[in-house]
Amino acid sequence: MMPRFLSRMIIFSVLVGIIPLLILGTFSYFKATQMIEKKVQQGNGQLLLQMFTQVEQKLRNIDHLLTQFASSSAVTSAMESPMEATHFQQANLIQADLSYLQTLAVGVQRVSLVNFKQGWVLTRDGVYRVDADLLSTSWMEEYRGLKQYSLWKTEKENENYIVNLVKSVPLQSNAKDGLVIVQMPAYTLNQFVIENSELGNFFILDRDQRIIAHSDASVVGQVFDIESDDLLLRQNEIVQYYNEKEATTYIHSDYNDWTYVSTVSLATLKKESRDIGWMTGMLIIIIVVAIVTIAFIGARSIYRPIKQLRQMTTATTKQQSKDDIALIGQAIQQLQQSQQQINDKLQQQIPQLTYLFLIRLLQGEWTEKQIQEQLAELKSAVTWQSLRVFVVQIDAFSETKYDSKDRDLLLFAVSNIVSDLTRENHRFQPLLLEERIVVIFGGNSDREQLQEQLDTLLKQIQKAVLYYLELPISIGVGREFTRLIDAAVAYREATYALRQRVFVEQSAIIYYTDQLTAVVEESYLYPVQTEKLLIDSIQALDMDGSERALQEILTSISKEQSVKQYEVMIVRLLVAIMNIVPEEQKHTTFSKLSEKSLIQQLLELSNKKDIEQWFITHVIKPIVTTLEAMKVTQYEEIVLAVKQIIDQNQGVDITLEKCATTLNYHPYYISRIFRNHTGVTFSDYLMEYRMNLAKRWLRDTDWKVSEVATKLGFINAQNFIRAFRKMENITPGKYREQQAGNSKQGD
């Protein structure tokens, strides 16, 4: 089952891609549809305007020619003539004008001059009576009764439609004595009508909304109702309107009240739109498939680290959730809780960590950078401009109600008193080191004021301890310093100052002074090189060299005038020698005396000779004995390892160098140890081992001599026979025969 978060990502990505696409596609489709319809309508309008212009131009040309004819002097004089035989010249003249007029007006079928007053009709073909059948009497009466001086009129004649232009004669006269009639078949207008247009149907309507020109002759004469209220208001303009089935574009002429019409089926327009819609739909489907594919691949790629986080957090999260984010959130919350628990525990451990930090600080194990890092981790900022270290120590238990068993409890009590009397913003927490209480004190006051505060504090501590515990204490104070890295030096100064209490009374406060500097820096006076020579001699088990080096060291340090300095150096020498022995061997080496009793016994000695003899007897000799035992054990292990290598490689040409390489020792070292512990050389032992093995195989197996030689690692049988004869004074074959004979005698 697909993870919920992954499915949400896919759905969201798909929606983000599809919704804008659908909106854009829909907008593009409708916009394209509108543009197509607009272009079609514009095209139809242009074609319709073209048709309108051409037809109007032809009709106006005919109208103009007819007007010239009607206003000519020949027509004016003819209207007063009875047109009898004697007037043939006048008739011929008018007929000639009529023929000329009909020739100029292409498409005109007949031109007639009607004289109601004289009762005759004159055409190009001849002169007729008004009541003749040449023209419909009803037409002429209708035309005579029209109020217009000139108009276009459509009539039906023998199933065909005729377009007539009628003008009164004389022109612009209320007395309509005659008419000039131009007859033109309606189908002659079809030449101007656009046929088989994919853009729709084009046709012409007369003033009665009757179709008089159309590419389809079957619809001529039908009435087409223009559904527009602007038909008469907006003339000579392109007008468009729509109904449920089609879009209609028309131009209404103010010249003859004709209407030029173009109709386009909405289905035709929508067909183009549907094609665009199908293309748009197919493109959208393709893009949607691409979006879904990309969304799926992209979501899986994005989900991969979330999946890894889920897998990582599944094992640690107690409550499992189907939602990945919720699960990760639970894991993060648990991590935050764990972190808070760890922080709480660290806060509880800060006093212990601070205690360890101060111990290492006083031992000089930190660098300046490490000190700052430790203070930052402990969330402790030191802004003191001046610092001092003072050390508090109990003077003695004599003449008090306590004894040495109570030392630890009393030190704890004194430490609490020091903590209570010293404000926290002026000190680090007190430390218990070497049965002393050590305090790093600091402040931002000037030197004199800080010294006064320190004096007052130390006196208060002494008084409080004496009052509450009835116990005398002495305090040693190191010199002023400004950097915490100098606390180790100040601690040594305070400790040394405290040692001077043997020369003063109890309950002393002793400040370290510049006169004691040389004593504190005893490491510069100590014979380090001679000490190294002594240690090297002891490690080399050289007792004579050890004694000479010991005498030289004792002579050097005995020149110091200060007893305390001499004690420090002699104890340092003892510790350095004892450190030669590994920790696990110290208890065995010094089993008779503990380290503490050794120091006490050493400090009780006052004679140089006695001290030298004590070092040799109680320290150096036991150490040499331990080292010798360790070396013997090591030699035995090496010899045993060499023998195991020989035993495991019976058929291999084993050498001393190969054994040394396997054991990571020098061949000479291996050879010397092997000879000292076995009494024979490596090669002799190897040869003896092989010969003993050969004698056993010759005695207990039926192997050939050559096979025995090969199994023992000899290159050829001759070398083996030669070596065997040298060791046993007999050849292998003779030895086998001899052993076989002895066996038979025993049986």
UniProtKB/TrEMBL annotation:
InterPro entries, per database record: CdaR_GGDEF (IPR041522), Homeodomain-like_sf (IPR009057), HTH_AraC (IPR018060), HTH_AraC-typ_CS (IPR018062), Tscrpt_reg_AraC-type_HTH (IPR020449)
Where is each HTH araC/xylS-type domain found?
636-738
Keyword Transcription regulation annotated:
yes
Keyword Transcription assigned to the entry: answer is yes
Q: Where are the transmembrane segments?
A: 6-30, 276-299
Q: Which SUPFAM superfamilies match?
A: Homeodomain-like
Kindly give the PROSITE patterns that the UniProt entry links to this protein: HTH_ARAC_FAMILY_1 (PS00041), HTH_ARAC_FAMILY_2 (PS01124)
- Name the keywords, alphabetized: DNA-binding, Membrane, Transcription, Transcription regulation, Transmembrane, Transmembrane helix
The protein here is known as: Helix-turn-helix domain-containing protein
